[in-house]
Amino acid sequence: MEETARLSPGTLLIYSRLIEEDHTLSNDLTLRRGQVIATASQAHNTANETAFPDPKMYKGLSFYDQDLAKHRAQPFYNLDSEVLTWGSGLWACPGRYIANLSSRVLLIKLLDEYDWSFIDGKPPPVTALHEFPLFSPDTKLNCRCKPASECLGISF
Fold it and tell me: What Pfam families does its record include (predicted)?
């Protein structure tokens, strides 16, 4: 899930800050009081070749393999300073544990009990509302409820 969040974060902008007083940067760019600045999360996560060799390639187990025992015991516990999706330090998202757990429960149930596919094999376009990427609620997917014999019967 960390790799998915790295490449496809739930928000396009992170670390939004309001400028409280005029400030001139070392390159003579002036930030004016009242302006908002932010970091583009996906751009940061897909451009850092030092932290992620081949950063645009999806490697589903890249975070999982780093320390398997610790990952199993405490997923999302440590925040990688290279992946800013969940924030870091004082600004780390306190709800990341709940988001992780509820996402896994939902994903497990949906994959166990249903077969999913895109209409005509084409993924829907992604749009954005403010900084949040969204799929249109009008997007149609093929969904088939699996017979009980094909399900693992996972319950929570």
Answer: p450
